[in-house]
Amino acid sequence: VLLALVVGLQSADAGTVGALVVPLTQSLHINNIQVGLLVTVSTGVGAVATLVAGPLADRTVRVRLLWMALLLCSAAMALSAASPSYGWLLACRVALGAGIAVSGPVVASLVGDYFKPAERGRVYGLVLAGEGTCTAIGLLVAGELGALSWRLGFGWLAAVGFLLSVAVGTLLREPSRGSRLGDRVTDAPHRSVWRELRWVASVRTNVVLIAASSFGYFFSTGLSTFGVALLCGRFEIGQSVATMLIAVLGVGALTGVLTTGRMADWLTHRGHISARIMVGGAAFLAAAVFILPTLLADSLVLALIFAFFAGTAMGGVNPPLNAARLDIVHSRLWGTAEAVRSTLVSVSTGLAPVVFGGVSAALGDTPGALGDTFLIMLVMPIVAAGLLLVVARRTYPRDVATAMASEVLTATTEPERCRT
Protein backbone atom coordinates (compact mmCIF):
# COMPACT_ATOMS: atom_id res chain seq x y z
CA VAL A 1 0.00 0.00 0.00
CA LEU A 2 2.79 2.42 0.90
CA LEU A 3 4.60 1.76 -2.37
CA ALA A 4 1.38 2.39 -4.29
CA LEU A 5 0.92 5.69 -2.45
CA VAL A 6 4.51 6.70 -3.22
CA VAL A 7 3.97 6.16 -6.95
CA GLY A 8 0.55 7.78 -6.70
CA LEU A 9 1.96 10.98 -5.19
CA GLN A 10 3.65 11.82 -8.49
CA SER A 11 0.43 11.23 -10.43
CA ALA A 12 -1.58 13.25 -7.94
CA ASP A 13 0.80 16.17 -8.42
CA ALA A 14 0.37 16.09 -12.20
CA GLY A 15 -3.40 15.99 -11.75
CA THR A 16 -3.23 18.89 -9.31
CA VAL A 17 -1.59 21.22 -11.83
CA GLY A 18 -4.24 20.33 -14.39
CA ALA A 19 -7.02 21.10 -11.92
CA LEU A 20 -5.51 24.47 -10.96
CA VAL A 21 -5.07 25.93 -14.45
CA VAL A 22 -7.77 28.59 -14.08
CA PRO A 23 -6.86 29.88 -10.58
CA LEU A 24 -3.14 29.87 -11.46
CA THR A 25 -3.66 31.93 -14.61
CA GLN A 26 -5.89 34.40 -12.78
CA SER A 27 -3.75 34.81 -9.66
CA LEU A 28 -0.26 34.84 -11.18
CA HIS A 29 -1.33 36.48 -14.48
CA ILE A 30 0.22 33.77 -16.63
CA ASN A 31 -0.93 32.01 -19.80
CA ASN A 32 -1.56 28.36 -20.60
CA ILE A 33 1.93 27.90 -22.03
CA GLN A 34 3.45 28.94 -18.71
CA VAL A 35 1.12 26.58 -16.87
CA GLY A 36 2.17 23.75 -19.17
CA LEU A 37 5.78 24.64 -18.48
CA LEU A 38 5.22 23.85 -14.79
CA VAL A 39 4.56 20.22 -15.72
CA THR A 40 7.14 20.05 -18.49
CA VAL A 41 9.95 21.36 -16.28
CA SER A 42 9.31 18.92 -13.44
CA THR A 43 8.92 16.04 -15.90
CA GLY A 44 12.09 16.96 -17.79
CA VAL A 45 14.17 17.37 -14.64
CA GLY A 46 12.73 14.11 -13.35
CA ALA A 47 13.67 12.26 -16.53
CA VAL A 48 17.31 13.37 -16.24
CA ALA A 49 17.48 12.88 -12.48
CA THR A 50 16.09 9.36 -12.83
CA LEU A 51 19.31 8.28 -14.56
CA VAL A 52 21.14 9.28 -11.38
CA ALA A 53 18.52 7.90 -9.00
CA GLY A 54 18.56 4.44 -10.59
CA PRO A 55 22.22 3.57 -9.91
CA LEU A 56 21.90 5.28 -6.52
CA ALA A 57 19.01 2.95 -5.64
CA ASP A 58 21.24 -0.01 -6.49
CA ARG A 59 23.99 1.18 -4.15
CA THR A 60 22.36 2.70 -1.07
CA VAL A 61 19.74 1.88 1.55
CA ARG A 62 16.60 2.25 -0.54
CA VAL A 63 14.08 2.91 2.22
CA ARG A 64 16.19 5.77 3.56
CA LEU A 65 16.63 7.19 0.07
CA LEU A 66 12.88 6.99 -0.48
CA TRP A 67 11.75 8.79 2.67
CA MET A 68 14.36 11.51 2.13
CA ALA A 69 13.10 12.02 -1.43
CA LEU A 70 9.51 12.20 -0.17
CA LEU A 71 10.58 14.80 2.37
CA LEU A 72 12.16 16.84 -0.43
CA CYS A 73 8.94 16.58 -2.45
CA SER A 74 6.90 17.69 0.54
CA ALA A 75 9.13 20.72 1.09
CA ALA A 76 8.97 21.63 -2.61
CA MET A 77 5.17 21.42 -2.57
CA ALA A 78 4.97 23.51 0.60
CA LEU A 79 7.18 26.17 -0.98
CA SER A 80 5.03 26.00 -4.11
CA ALA A 81 1.99 26.82 -1.99
CA ALA A 82 3.84 29.84 -0.58
CA SER A 83 5.15 31.06 -3.94
CA PRO A 84 4.98 34.86 -4.28
CA SER A 85 5.61 34.75 -8.05
CA TYR A 86 5.64 32.49 -11.09
CA GLY A 87 9.45 32.29 -11.09
CA TRP A 88 9.44 31.02 -7.50
CA LEU A 89 6.81 28.42 -8.38
CA LEU A 90 8.80 27.27 -11.41
CA ALA A 91 11.95 26.86 -9.29
CA CYS A 92 9.99 24.75 -6.80
CA ARG A 93 8.86 22.52 -9.65
CA VAL A 94 12.51 21.88 -10.54
CA ALA A 95 13.20 20.65 -7.00
CA LEU A 96 10.01 18.60 -7.07
CA GLY A 97 11.05 16.89 -10.31
CA ALA A 98 14.36 15.86 -8.76
CA GLY A 99 12.63 14.39 -5.72
CA ILE A 100 9.98 12.53 -7.68
CA ALA A 101 12.66 10.95 -9.88
CA VAL A 102 13.71 8.68 -7.01
CA SER A 103 10.36 6.93 -6.62
CA GLY A 104 10.33 4.85 -9.83
CA PRO A 105 13.71 3.07 -9.52
CA VAL A 106 13.43 2.61 -5.75
CA VAL A 107 9.89 1.22 -5.86
CA ALA A 108 10.80 -1.19 -8.67
CA SER A 109 13.81 -2.46 -6.71
CA LEU A 110 11.82 -2.82 -3.48
CA VAL A 111 8.97 -4.68 -5.20
CA GLY A 112 11.52 -7.16 -6.53
CA ASP A 113 12.93 -7.85 -3.06
CA TYR A 114 9.76 -7.62 -0.98
CA PHE A 115 7.70 -10.03 -3.08
CA LYS A 116 8.27 -13.44 -4.62
CA PRO A 117 8.54 -13.66 -8.42
CA ALA A 118 5.27 -15.62 -8.58
CA GLU A 119 3.23 -12.71 -7.16
CA ARG A 120 4.87 -9.65 -8.69
CA GLY A 121 2.27 -9.29 -11.44
CA ARG A 122 -0.50 -9.02 -8.85
CA VAL A 123 1.54 -6.62 -6.73
CA TYR A 124 2.31 -4.36 -9.69
CA GLY A 125 -1.39 -4.35 -10.49
CA LEU A 126 -2.12 -2.99 -7.02
CA VAL A 127 0.67 -0.41 -7.29
CA LEU A 128 -0.57 0.85 -10.66
CA ALA A 129 -4.16 0.85 -9.44
CA GLY A 130 -3.03 3.08 -6.59
CA GLU A 131 -1.33 5.36 -9.09
CA GLY A 132 -4.51 5.77 -11.13
CA THR A 133 -6.64 6.27 -8.04
CA CYS A 134 -4.30 8.96 -6.72
CA THR A 135 -4.48 10.77 -10.05
CA ALA A 136 -8.26 10.93 -9.78
CA ILE A 137 -8.07 12.02 -6.14
CA GLY A 138 -5.53 14.70 -7.04
CA LEU A 139 -7.85 16.13 -9.67
CA LEU A 140 -10.88 16.02 -7.38
CA VAL A 141 -9.34 17.43 -4.20
CA ALA A 142 -7.25 20.06 -5.96
CA GLY A 143 -10.26 21.15 -7.98
CA GLU A 144 -12.35 21.64 -4.85
CA LEU A 145 -9.58 23.38 -2.91
CA GLY A 146 -8.63 25.44 -5.95
CA ALA A 147 -12.06 27.06 -5.81
CA LEU A 148 -10.91 28.60 -2.52
CA SER A 149 -7.21 29.14 -3.30
CA TRP A 150 -4.68 27.49 -5.59
CA ARG A 151 -2.24 27.52 -2.65
CA LEU A 152 -4.42 25.00 -0.83
CA GLY A 153 -4.19 22.75 -3.88
CA PHE A 154 -0.42 22.45 -3.42
CA GLY A 155 -0.54 22.65 0.37
CA TRP A 156 -2.58 19.50 0.87
CA LEU A 157 -0.07 17.52 -1.22
CA ALA A 158 2.75 18.86 0.95
CA ALA A 159 0.99 17.50 4.04
CA VAL A 160 0.36 14.14 2.36
CA GLY A 161 3.99 13.92 1.24
CA PHE A 162 5.26 14.63 4.75
CA LEU A 163 2.99 12.00 6.32
CA LEU A 164 4.01 9.51 3.65
CA SER A 165 7.72 10.12 4.28
CA VAL A 166 7.19 9.47 8.00
CA ALA A 167 5.24 6.29 7.25
CA VAL A 168 7.91 4.98 4.87
CA GLY A 169 10.72 5.76 7.31
CA THR A 170 9.02 4.06 10.26
CA LEU A 171 7.04 1.18 8.72
CA LEU A 172 9.25 -0.12 5.91
CA ARG A 173 12.38 -2.15 6.53
CA GLU A 174 15.21 -2.50 4.05
CA PRO A 175 14.95 -5.99 2.49
CA SER A 176 17.91 -8.14 1.51
CA ARG A 177 19.02 -7.59 -2.05
CA GLY A 178 18.56 -10.54 -4.34
CA SER A 179 15.80 -12.16 -2.29
CA ARG A 180 14.85 -14.00 -5.48
CA LEU A 181 17.33 -16.60 -4.14
CA GLY A 182 17.10 -15.70 -0.49
CA ASP A 183 20.84 -15.06 -0.34
CA ARG A 184 23.04 -12.05 -0.03
CA VAL A 185 24.40 -10.44 -3.14
CA THR A 186 28.01 -9.40 -2.79
CA ASP A 187 28.61 -5.69 -2.67
CA ALA A 188 30.61 -4.03 -5.41
CA PRO A 189 31.12 -0.41 -4.36
CA HIS A 190 33.34 0.42 -7.34
CA ARG A 191 30.98 -0.77 -10.06
CA SER A 192 30.93 1.36 -13.19
CA VAL A 193 27.62 3.08 -13.84
CA TRP A 194 28.27 3.26 -17.58
CA ARG A 195 29.07 -0.43 -17.69
CA GLU A 196 25.81 -1.21 -15.93
CA LEU A 197 23.85 1.01 -18.31
CA ARG A 198 25.41 -0.80 -21.26
CA TRP A 199 24.59 -4.16 -19.69
CA VAL A 200 20.96 -3.20 -19.17
CA ALA A 201 20.78 -2.06 -22.79
CA SER A 202 22.30 -5.37 -23.94
CA VAL A 203 19.43 -7.48 -22.57
CA ARG A 204 17.38 -7.99 -25.72
CA THR A 205 14.07 -8.61 -23.97
CA ASN A 206 14.54 -5.47 -21.89
CA VAL A 207 15.08 -3.39 -25.03
CA VAL A 208 11.91 -4.82 -26.57
CA LEU A 209 9.92 -4.16 -23.37
CA ILE A 210 11.11 -0.55 -23.25
CA ALA A 211 10.22 -0.02 -26.92
CA ALA A 212 6.77 -1.57 -26.45
CA SER A 213 6.11 0.49 -23.32
CA SER A 214 7.18 3.66 -25.13
CA PHE A 215 4.75 2.98 -27.98
CA GLY A 216 1.96 2.26 -25.51
CA TYR A 217 2.56 5.37 -23.40
CA PHE A 218 2.87 7.45 -26.57
CA PHE A 219 -0.63 6.47 -27.68
CA SER A 220 -2.22 6.72 -24.22
CA THR A 221 -0.70 10.19 -23.69
CA GLY A 222 -2.13 11.36 -26.99
CA LEU A 223 -5.49 9.93 -25.95
CA SER A 224 -5.46 11.68 -22.58
CA THR A 225 -4.47 14.97 -24.26
CA PHE A 226 -6.94 15.02 -27.16
CA GLY A 227 -9.58 12.48 -26.11
CA VAL A 228 -12.02 15.10 -24.80
CA ALA A 229 -11.62 17.21 -27.95
CA LEU A 230 -12.26 14.12 -30.08
CA LEU A 231 -15.50 13.31 -28.25
CA CYS A 232 -16.70 16.92 -28.38
CA GLY A 233 -16.13 17.20 -32.11
CA ARG A 234 -17.38 13.77 -33.15
CA PHE A 235 -20.57 13.60 -31.09
CA GLU A 236 -21.21 17.35 -30.62
CA ILE A 237 -21.34 17.27 -26.84
CA GLY A 238 -20.05 19.71 -24.23
CA GLN A 239 -16.67 19.46 -22.55
CA SER A 240 -18.12 18.63 -19.13
CA VAL A 241 -20.06 15.68 -20.58
CA ALA A 242 -17.04 14.53 -22.58
CA THR A 243 -14.85 14.66 -19.47
CA MET A 244 -17.33 12.49 -17.60
CA LEU A 245 -17.38 10.02 -20.48
CA ILE A 246 -13.59 9.77 -20.44
CA ALA A 247 -14.02 8.37 -16.93
CA VAL A 248 -15.38 5.24 -18.61
CA LEU A 249 -11.88 4.65 -19.96
CA GLY A 250 -10.51 5.13 -16.46
CA VAL A 251 -12.85 2.54 -14.97
CA GLY A 252 -11.92 0.12 -17.72
CA ALA A 253 -8.21 0.76 -17.16
CA LEU A 254 -8.57 0.08 -13.44
CA THR A 255 -10.30 -3.21 -14.24
CA GLY A 256 -7.46 -4.23 -16.55
CA VAL A 257 -4.75 -3.23 -14.09
CA LEU A 258 -6.23 -5.41 -11.36
CA THR A 259 -6.81 -8.39 -13.67
CA THR A 260 -3.90 -9.06 -16.01
CA GLY A 261 -1.16 -9.21 -13.39
CA ARG A 262 -3.01 -11.95 -11.52
CA MET A 263 -3.72 -13.76 -14.77
CA ALA A 264 -0.06 -13.71 -15.79
CA ASP A 265 1.03 -14.92 -12.34
CA TRP A 266 -1.46 -17.80 -12.52
CA LEU A 267 -0.28 -18.86 -15.98
CA THR A 268 3.36 -18.62 -14.93
CA HIS A 269 2.66 -20.82 -11.91
CA ARG A 270 1.13 -23.41 -14.24
CA GLY A 271 4.33 -23.64 -16.26
CA HIS A 272 3.82 -21.10 -19.05
CA ILE A 273 7.24 -19.44 -18.88
CA SER A 274 6.50 -16.55 -21.24
CA ALA A 275 3.02 -15.88 -19.81
CA ARG A 276 3.82 -12.32 -18.70
CA ILE A 277 5.05 -11.38 -22.16
CA MET A 278 2.10 -13.07 -23.86
CA VAL A 279 -0.50 -11.44 -21.60
CA GLY A 280 1.06 -7.99 -22.12
CA GLY A 281 1.22 -8.48 -25.88
CA ALA A 282 -2.35 -9.77 -26.03
CA ALA A 283 -3.49 -6.71 -24.05
CA PHE A 284 -1.85 -4.39 -26.59
CA LEU A 285 -3.49 -6.27 -29.46
CA ALA A 286 -6.90 -6.25 -27.76
CA ALA A 287 -6.57 -2.50 -27.17
CA ALA A 288 -6.02 -1.90 -30.89
CA VAL A 289 -8.96 -4.16 -31.77
CA PHE A 290 -11.37 -2.30 -29.48
CA ILE A 291 -10.05 1.21 -30.20
CA LEU A 292 -10.77 0.83 -33.92
CA PRO A 293 -14.58 0.47 -33.57
CA THR A 294 -14.50 3.14 -30.86
CA LEU A 295 -13.15 5.60 -33.41
CA LEU A 296 -15.50 4.48 -36.20
CA ALA A 297 -18.76 4.14 -34.23
CA ASP A 298 -21.52 6.64 -35.00
CA SER A 299 -23.43 5.91 -31.79
CA LEU A 300 -22.12 7.46 -28.57
CA VAL A 301 -23.40 4.54 -26.49
CA LEU A 302 -21.72 2.00 -28.76
CA ALA A 303 -18.49 4.00 -28.71
CA LEU A 304 -18.52 4.04 -24.91
CA ILE A 305 -18.96 0.26 -24.75
CA PHE A 306 -15.96 -0.29 -27.01
CA ALA A 307 -14.04 2.41 -25.12
CA PHE A 308 -14.56 0.54 -21.85
CA PHE A 309 -13.05 -2.64 -23.28
CA ALA A 310 -10.24 -0.65 -24.91
CA GLY A 311 -9.47 0.98 -21.57
CA THR A 312 -9.46 -2.43 -19.88
CA ALA A 313 -6.95 -3.71 -22.41
CA MET A 314 -4.68 -0.65 -22.21
CA GLY A 315 -4.72 -0.75 -18.42
CA GLY A 316 -3.84 -4.43 -18.49
CA VAL A 317 -0.60 -3.93 -20.38
CA ASN A 318 1.73 -2.72 -17.64
CA PRO A 319 1.40 -5.08 -14.61
CA PRO A 320 2.67 -8.23 -16.37
CA LEU A 321 5.35 -6.34 -18.31
CA ASN A 322 6.66 -4.56 -15.20
CA ALA A 323 6.91 -7.92 -13.44
CA ALA A 324 8.66 -9.41 -16.47
CA ARG A 325 11.33 -6.68 -16.35
CA LEU A 326 12.34 -7.79 -12.86
CA ASP A 327 12.69 -11.37 -14.10
CA ILE A 328 15.29 -10.58 -16.77
CA VAL A 329 17.61 -8.22 -14.87
CA HIS A 330 20.01 -8.96 -12.01
CA SER A 331 18.59 -7.76 -8.69
CA ARG A 332 21.59 -5.47 -8.24
CA LEU A 333 20.53 -3.56 -11.37
CA TRP A 334 16.77 -3.25 -10.88
CA GLY A 335 17.02 0.45 -10.07
CA THR A 336 19.23 1.17 -13.08
CA ALA A 337 16.96 -0.77 -15.43
CA GLU A 338 13.89 1.10 -14.23
CA ALA A 339 15.73 4.42 -14.58
CA VAL A 340 16.55 3.70 -18.22
CA ARG A 341 12.96 2.69 -18.93
CA SER A 342 11.46 5.71 -17.16
CA THR A 343 13.73 8.15 -18.99
CA LEU A 344 12.95 6.79 -22.45
CA VAL A 345 9.23 6.55 -21.70
CA SER A 346 9.31 10.18 -20.52
CA VAL A 347 10.73 11.18 -23.90
CA SER A 348 7.92 9.27 -25.61
CA THR A 349 5.17 10.85 -23.52
CA GLY A 350 6.71 14.29 -23.99
CA LEU A 351 6.67 13.96 -27.78
CA ALA A 352 3.18 12.48 -28.03
CA PRO A 353 1.07 15.68 -27.69
CA VAL A 354 3.27 17.51 -30.20
CA VAL A 355 3.14 14.69 -32.76
CA PHE A 356 -0.61 14.15 -32.36
CA GLY A 357 -1.22 17.88 -32.69
CA GLY A 358 1.11 18.19 -35.67
CA VAL A 359 -0.47 15.32 -37.59
CA SER A 360 -3.95 16.64 -36.84
CA ALA A 361 -2.98 20.10 -38.10
CA ALA A 362 -1.47 18.63 -41.25
CA LEU A 363 -4.73 16.77 -41.94
CA GLY A 364 -6.81 19.92 -41.61
CA ASP A 365 -7.13 20.60 -37.87
CA THR A 366 -10.81 19.59 -37.78
CA PRO A 367 -12.70 17.07 -35.58
CA GLY A 368 -12.59 14.64 -38.50
CA ALA A 369 -8.84 15.16 -38.86
CA LEU A 370 -8.36 14.42 -35.17
CA GLY A 371 -10.20 11.12 -35.60
CA ASP A 372 -8.02 10.27 -38.61
CA THR A 373 -4.96 11.08 -36.50
CA PHE A 374 -5.98 8.50 -33.91
CA LEU A 375 -6.53 5.94 -36.67
CA ILE A 376 -3.00 6.58 -37.94
CA MET A 377 -1.50 6.42 -34.47
CA LEU A 378 -3.28 3.12 -33.83
CA VAL A 379 -0.23 1.53 -35.40
CA MET A 380 1.61 2.18 -32.11
CA PRO A 381 -0.13 -0.47 -29.94
CA ILE A 382 -0.14 -2.86 -32.91
CA VAL A 383 3.64 -2.55 -33.28
CA ALA A 384 4.04 -2.96 -29.51
CA ALA A 385 1.96 -6.14 -29.61
CA GLY A 386 4.05 -7.47 -32.49
CA LEU A 387 7.32 -6.80 -30.69
CA LEU A 388 6.11 -8.66 -27.61
CA LEU A 389 4.37 -11.60 -29.28
CA VAL A 390 7.01 -12.19 -31.95
CA VAL A 391 10.36 -11.08 -30.50
CA ALA A 392 10.19 -10.93 -26.69
CA ARG A 393 8.27 -14.21 -26.42
CA ARG A 394 11.34 -16.01 -27.80
CA THR A 395 14.08 -14.07 -26.00
CA TYR A 396 12.41 -13.89 -22.57
CA PRO A 397 13.11 -17.49 -21.35
CA ARG A 398 16.79 -17.19 -22.21
CA ASP A 399 17.15 -13.82 -20.50
CA VAL A 400 15.38 -15.11 -17.38
CA ALA A 401 17.80 -18.04 -17.24
CA THR A 402 20.76 -15.68 -17.70
CA ALA A 403 19.57 -13.42 -14.88
CA MET A 404 19.08 -16.37 -12.54
CA ALA A 405 22.54 -17.72 -13.37
CA SER A 406 24.12 -14.34 -12.67
CA GLU A 407 22.31 -14.23 -9.31
CA VAL A 408 23.87 -17.57 -8.39
CA LEU A 409 27.34 -16.42 -9.40
CA THR A 410 27.16 -13.25 -7.29
CA ALA A 411 25.43 -14.75 -4.25
CA THR A 412 27.13 -15.67 -0.97
CA THR A 413 25.97 -17.94 1.79
CA GLU A 414 25.86 -15.21 4.42
CA PRO A 415 22.40 -13.70 4.74
CA GLU A 416 22.45 -9.96 4.64
CA ARG A 417 21.29 -8.17 7.75
CA CYS A 418 18.23 -6.07 7.11
CA ARG A 419 19.03 -2.38 7.40
CA THR A 420 16.60 0.21 8.51
UniProtKB/TrEMBL annotation:
KW Transport (keyword) present: yes
Transmembrane region(s): 33-53, 65-82, 88-111, 123-142, 154-172, 207-231, 237-261, 273-293, 299-318, 339-362, 374-392
Gene3D superfamilies (alphabetical): MFS general substrate transporter like domains
Keywords: Membrane, Transmembrane, Transmembrane helix, Transport
Source taxon at top rank: Bacteria
Subcellular locations according to the entry: Cell membrane
UniProt-listed PANTHER family: MAJOR FACILITATOR SUPERFAMILY PROTEIN, SPINSTER
Name assigned to this protein: MFS transporter
Origin species: Mycobacterium ahvazicum
Taxonomic lineage from the root: Bacteria, Bacillati, Actinomycetota, Actinomycetes, Mycobacteriales
